[in-house]
């Protein structure tokens, strides 16, 4: 199952370009490989937890053409990242304040086909410019699904990468493709299992992925670290439909408690 790696993924294996490692602003890419695993909801909610720790957080909707982060934050953006790149809109105009203290958003444009003739590294240029301003402690990039060039561009500049996945076989195949690709240019990846019944299930599957990587002789210095799991909870979908964050509205729910544990584990690793 895990060995069904797409030819597209293999073409994307490149040496990552160095970026400003001296900046205090950390870039964390949230990715998945497969769509529909709850990646965007995870990104929005974990950003709220970080913000509650008095950290200045920016969420960047990098799901080019299928942006939905403005819905989760209940915003109607006048300008998006596409306006900055295509119409020379100033950076300050695309940094949108949300209703949540310490959280800002750079929105994407849904249903839009990015038309720059030479789009390579254009998106990462926006992130680097924001990082160099040091207005934020953390930049969370919500990447698109899959392993296309635009996703790879964001992964290349990230200081840390968190993969959100499920126990679905196709999701696991895609996340292994992601591991295989990143093992050539990154030091580690963090794993989060969504919609799983227990912590141990995600832990066991993560270990299976590590064993498979070892068997296939991937970079032995590349680390796959398990952060935790979020169980199935209908309240997550309900709050999403209401354009609210479950980490705020359902503080004592099992899903919010699990997300807090994941956040704690991530902070310990990256601090």
Structure description:
It is a single chain. The chain has an eight-stranded mixed sheet, with helices on both faces. Strand 3 and strand 4 form a beta hairpin. It has twelve helices and eight strands. With 271 residues, it is α/β, with parallel strands linked by helices. The longest helix is centred in the last third of the chain and has 17 residues. Helix content is 42%, strand content 17%. It has one domain: Rossmann fold (3-Layer(aba) Sandwich).
In short:
This protein has 271 residues and is of the alpha/beta class. Helix content is 42%, strand content 17%.
From the spread of the alpha carbons, the general shape counts as globular
CATH architecture: 3-Layer(aba) Sandwich
Q: Given the structure, what is the number of helices?
A: 12
Count of folded domains: 1
Described by strand count, sense and barrel closure, the largest sheet is: 8 strands, mixed
The count of β-strands is 8
Q: Provide the structure class.
A: alpha/beta
Highest CATH level, the class: Alpha Beta
What percent of residues are in strands?
A: 15-25%
Order of helices and strands: HEHEHHHEEHEHEHEHEHHH
By CATH, the superfamily comes out as P-loop containing nucleotide triphosphate hydrolases
For the biggest β-sheet, the strand order reads 3-4-2-5-1-6-7-8
At CATH level 3, the topology is Rossmann fold
Low-confidence stretches: 2-20
Radius of gyration: 18 Å
Distance between the termini: 35 Å
Mean pLDDT: 87
Q: Residue share in helices?
A: 40-55%
């Amino acid at each position: 199952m895990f060995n069904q790696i797409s030819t597209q993924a293999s073409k994307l294996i490149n040496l990552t370009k160095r970026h400003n490692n001296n900046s205090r602003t950390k870039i964390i890419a949230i990715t998945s490989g497969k769509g529909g695993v709850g990646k965007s909801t995870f990104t929005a909610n974990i950003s709220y937890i970080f913000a509650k720790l008095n950290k200045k957080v920016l969420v960047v909707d990098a799901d080019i053409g299928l942006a939905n982060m403005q819905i989760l934050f209940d915003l109607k953006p006048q300008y998006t990242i596409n306006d900055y790149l295509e119409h020379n809109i100033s950076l300050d105009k695309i940094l949108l304040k949300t209703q949540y203290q310490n959280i800002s958003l750079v929105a994407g444009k849904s249903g839009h086909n990015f038309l720059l003739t030479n789009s390579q590294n254009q998106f990462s240029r926006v992130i680097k410019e924001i990082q160099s301003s040091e207005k934020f402690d953390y930049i969370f990039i919500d990447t698109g699904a899959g392993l296309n060039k635009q996703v790879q561009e964001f992964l290349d500049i990230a200081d840390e990468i968190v993969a959100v996945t499920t126990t679905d076989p196709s999701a696991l195949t895609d996340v292994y493709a992601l591991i295989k690709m990143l093992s050539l240019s990154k030091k580690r990846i963090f794993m989060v299992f969504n919609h799983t019944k227990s912590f141990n299930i995600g832990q066991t599957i993560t270990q299976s992925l590590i064993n498979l990587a070892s068997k296939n002789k991937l970079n032995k210095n590349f680390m796959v670290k398990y952060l935790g799991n979020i169980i199935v909870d209908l309240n997550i979908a309900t709050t999403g439909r209401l354009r609210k964050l479950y980490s705020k509205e359902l503080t004592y729910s099992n899903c919010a408690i699990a997300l807090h544990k994941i956040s704690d584990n991530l902070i310990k690793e990256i601090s």
